[in-house]
Write a structure and sequence with these properties.
Helix content: over 70%
Order of helices and strands: HHHHH
Strand content: under 5%
Distance between the termini: 10 Å
Shape: globular
Number of strands: 0
């Protein structure tokens, strides 16, 4: 098995966070395009396939990022007064979840040595 580098994990995280960020900014048309691109990458990119195959919880991480970001984006649309707080809380939770996945990747990479 090939190791997953930190650069590859940053790419994976960016491709799941990019549509959410566009939704937060109110760029709905760009959000739809970025979401379509992310879904295509998740299912057809060899790096995403390797990530999902090697890391336990990878599917949940991707699903959590996209779904929770979409829910927060919808909440921001209806509650614009608390947008900063909602985005901050979502971002902190996503970072903590991402760090847990990064630790799993580190353990997998150590076992491959």
């Amino acid at each position: 098995m090939k190791k997953i580098s930190s650069r590859e994990f940053m790419y994976i995280s960016a491709m799941t966070v990019l549509p959410v960020a566009m939704l937060f900014k109110g760029m709905y048309l760009y959000f739809m395009g970025a979401l379509a691109l992310s879904v295509l990458l998740i299912y057809f990119d060899p790096l995403f396939k390797q990530f999902r195959r090697q890391v336990a919880g990878a599917n949940q991480f991707i699903f959590f990022t996209l779904l929770s970001g979409g829910i927060i984006g919808l909440a921001i649309y209806f509650l614009p007064n608390v947008a900063n707080a909602l985005i901050s809380i979502w971002f902190i939770v996503d970072i903590v979840y991402g760090l847990k996945i990064a630790k799993k990747i580190e353990l997998i990479n150590e076992n491959l040595n």
